[in-house]
Design brief:
By secondary structure, this protein is an alpha+beta fold. It contains 23 helices and 11 strands. The chain binds adenosine-5'-triphosphate and magnesium ion.
Length: about 425
């Protein structure tokens, strides 16, 4: 078998639970992934041992009881991430569309019933290497179908995030959503917003960083999840407009796996691309992710007209740490033969001393040479930086000469420029 340390650990946990006369099986996503021939991200164990029995067996020091109220104990080990060991359970009533109000410990068969989709509802006995399937998961996996376990409308009423999970699994596995399950999503999609922004953001991140995200966006539209999640795109999508085709095409061509870049691809063709920042905040993305998306949608139009731009303007964009993401977005949105894009790629290949030479003069330099700091400094330094990038000045002496000249000409600031320079 594979040398995956978490797999070994999850196997060892099953052995120990069995040795203590408990039932123990692998459960959920890891069973599915293994049947699909994919390496599972993590292994979950399900057992009839109660949380306190699991803690007693593995010891307080090797366990974490963060999820104990839901019957989940994390068992730690030093070679891999923790393995979650969960007591077979049925969820009590869902009163808020998000969480069960209580849990009841039960059998493996009932535990399968509380899981979301048939493909996620299977168990595997790793000692006998046998799949235990109470929900028809193997048939749906073979047919490529996402099907809710039980009555889809009831299951989505319990936890509305499941609707978005259906779209995410269908997208990333290239599966179809079974018609009754899809119809239930279509009738309840607007309610997805009762779920926490973080859980929604996590699912959307998985969907939009996957190579099949174009199909994912289309599925959000078909399932009715687009309006509650991306109201900005609704008008474009409604009439299958050029803007909508453009968003789909940009996503399709995009080669970056960066979340911010993918999100920008959705917004660049819209009347107000800057709304990408509000969307990022809505899903509680990090400030860094939001700032990058906002920067990308702002810069793309400049790449589009790069040929007509004043060279120092481009030289201020291209040395940015995320220029690679901007180029990926530009290739996807403008096409890889776009003249402005090709020009930028030539510039990006320049040595960094040419693309982004250290400034000849800083504010501190001006102060050191006797200039009194003030709001006019920024404009003065911009003019000097432009002259440097254009090759009009080559060293600090020339830069200081230019500064003096600009001040004399009163080009920089009419108020107080005469006395900008201190009396010597
Ligand atoms: P992946 O980790 O690849 O996203 P996964 O199926 O392992 O997929 P997890 O979120 O790790 O997804 O959940 C583990 C298992 O818990 C699932 O396979 C499923 O059986 C069950 N599960 C997870 N979320 C829900 C939910 N919202 N409703 C019902 N069951 C769920
Ligand atoms: Mg998982």
């Amino acid at each position: 078998m594979s040398a995956n340390p978490q797999r070994e650990f999850a196997l060892d946990i099953v052995r120990q639970l069995r040795a203590a006369s408990f039932e123990a099986l692998w459960a959920g996503g890891c069973v599915r992934d293994q049947l699909l021939g994919r390496e599972p991200q993590d292994y979950d164990v399900a057992t009839n041992a109660r949380p306190e029995e699991i803690q007693k067996l593995f010891g307080q020091r090797r366990t974490l009881a963060i999820g104990a109220a839901f019957g989940v104990i994390s068992v730690l080990n030093k070679n891999s991430g923790p393995v979650e060991v969960a007591t077979f359970r049925s969820d009590g009533a869902y009163l808020d569309g998000r969480h069960p109000s209580s849990v009841v410990y039960t059998t493996a068969e009932h535990d399968a019933q509380r899981r979301d989709f048939t493909i996620n509802g299977m168990f595997f006995d790793p000692l006998e290497e046998r799949v235990i399937d109470y929900v028809g998961g193997q048939a749906d996996l073979a047919a490529g179908v996402i099907r809710a376990i039980g009555d889809p409308a009831a299951r989505f009423t319990e936890d509305k995030l499941r609707m978005l999970r259906a779209a995410r699994f269908a997208t990333t596995f290239d599966f179809t959503i079974e018609p009754v399950t899809l119809a239930a999503i279509q009738s309840m999609a607007a309610e997805v917003t009762v779920v926490s922004a973080e859980r929604i953001g996590a699912e959307l991140t998985r969907l939009f960083t996957h190579p099949r995200r174009r199909e994912g966006l289309q599925l959000l539209q078909e399932s009715g999840l687009l309006p509650p999640l991306f109201p900005e795109l609704v008008d474009a999508a409604r009439n299958n407009s050029d803007v909508w085709s453009k968003a789909l095409q940009t996503l399709e061509r995009l080669e970056s796996e960066n979340l911010s870049t993918a999100l920008s691809a959705l917004f660049v063709g819209l009347p107000k691309p800057a709304e990408v920042a509000a969307a990022g905040r809505r899903f509680r993305l990090s400030n860094k992710e939001i700032d990058l998306a906002a920067w990308l949608v702002k810069q793309l139009p400049r790449i589009d007209v790069a040929e007509q731009l004043f060279w120092p303007q481009l030289q201020r964009i291209l040395p940015h740490e995320s220029a690679g993401e901007l180029m990926a977005l530009a290739r996807a949105a403008l096409g890889d033969k776009h003249a402005g894009l090709l020009g930028c790629q030539v510039l990006l290949a320049l040595p960094s001393e040419r693309l982004n030479p250290p400034p000849l003069l800083t504010g501190d330099d001006l102060v050191r040479h006797g200039y009194r700091p003030g709001p006019h400094f920024a404009r003065l330094l911009t003019a000097i930086r432009d002259a440097q990038l254009e090759g009009q000045i080559r060293d600090q002496a020339e830069a200081l000469q230019l500064a003096e000249q600009l001040i004399q000409d009163q080009d920089i600031d009419h108020k107080g420029t005469k006395d900008t320079k201190k009396e010597k």
